[in-house]
Amino acid sequence: MAENQNNRRNFLRTSLALGAATLVAPTATIAGLPAAVKDDEFKIAVGPYLQSNFNNAMTILWLTNKNAAGWVEFGEDAGNLDRKAYGKAELGLMQANSKLNAVTIQNLKPGIKYYYKIVSKEIKDFQPYKLTYGETISSRVEEFQNADVTKKEVSFLMMNDIHDRPESIPFLLNLVPKGKQDFVFFNGDIFDYQTDEKQIIDHMLQPCVDSFARHTPFVYVRGNHETRGKFAREFAQYYMHVGHAAFTLGPVRFVILDTGEDKEDAHPVYAGIVNFDDYRVQQAEWLKNEINTKAFKNAPFRIVLMHIPPRFSGDAHGPKHCTELFEPLLNQGKVDLVLSGHTHKYMVHQPDKNLNRYPLIIGGGPKAGSRTITSIKADQHKITVSMIGDSGTEVGTYTALRK
């Protein structure tokens, strides 16, 4: 998990520098705040929303409309939030004077429900030897259940290729029978390109907060469209991580790959300022190590999540490079399931003993009639996949039995 830790350190270090350079636009009323808030009043712009790597820790993120210092109050009793957690300090400096907050609560008890609220204190003036605070605000009390990584079953949902259609997030979630999900996975291209912070709030964070993210974490990997636009280099600050990662939950070892751009690095639209080929090569080396770890080998099941499929996604440079680099390792590692997006055409590809020895599930596209949400459940004996189209009917299924 060293790569995850580095990603989180980089995320938090960057968030400290966000400060006044980040613009937060007024948003809809946040639960627990007054219905009428003046535009110039200090307020929570979006959040809280949850992220996790399921190692008895939960990261809580939120944004305020002005620079502040923030923390989380939490406990096992909704009426007694008797503990506090702060953002990770860097070089002795606690997170402060920023609009973006990321607080990780450590050493949680497996399977226990926790209650929490976020608190922010406005920093009105920051002088070298005098700091002036303003108003203190907080959210209502929310709750989440810390996952037990030794649990016998795991359940999650996958959405992909929303492409700046935020209304699709609650719409697709409502197609799935109500039930407890361990997390929601966004498999890339939730945006067309990265423009600014307001787009991230309005087109993803707020719909997630309104729908589920205050009590259920989501995990996110970039698609090729998230690599585009003037805000692409700031985009990752708003999430726990958006690149490659691995974690174990229940009977599944989850491996996430960031497949980068589908265009060649030398394409004129990138003006010589990207290097996705080397990035994918580095991930292939990381994946080579991952498939030889005890956590990977000993897991009853191994699921890989990657935006660009390792096969069946055309002849562009990026997809071909993914096939070249990743497919031999996926076969070598005897992966049980690969989940992808990108093609905008939902499909279930069966294993092939000569090519992809793994089943490949590709989710649908952004337009009405092609949208999908995929429900995945795994226990000690099998993985079951059900892909639901936006008409509410099942458009793809797969069952993988333990080998």
Record keyword descriptors for this entry:
6 helices; single chain; 403 residues; six-stranded mixed sheet; alpha+beta; 18% helix; disordered N terminus; 19 strands; seven-stranded antiparallel sheet
Describe the structure in brief:
The chain has 403 residues and is α+β, with helices and mostly antiparallel strands. The chain has helices at 2-16, 168-173, 197-213, 276-290, 294-298, 317-332; strands at residues 44-51, 58-75, 83-86, 98-105, 113-127, 130-138, 142-145, 154-159, 183-187, 218-221, 245-249, 252-257, 301-306, 337-340, 347-349, 360-362, 372-378, 382-389, 394-401.
Explained architecture:
The protein is α+β, with helices and mostly antiparallel strands. It is built from 6 helices and 19 strands. Helix 4 (276-290) packs parallel to helix 6. It is globular. It starts with a helix and ends with a strand. Mean pLDDT is 91; it is low at 1-35.
Topology pattern, helix = H, strand = E: HEEEEEEEEHEHEEEHHEHEEEEEE
Helix content range: 10-25%
| Count of separate DSSP helical elements | 6
Q: Could you tell me the strand content as a percent range? A: 25-35%
Class derived from helix and strand content: alpha+beta
Mean pLDDT: 91
Regions with little confidence, pLDDT below 50 for 5+ residues: 1-35
Sheet of most strands = 7 strands, antiparallel
Q: Which overall shape is indicated by the principal axes computed on the Cα atoms?
A: globular
List how many beta strands DSSP finds. Answer: 19
Gyration radius, rounded: 21 Å
Distance between the termini: 26 Å
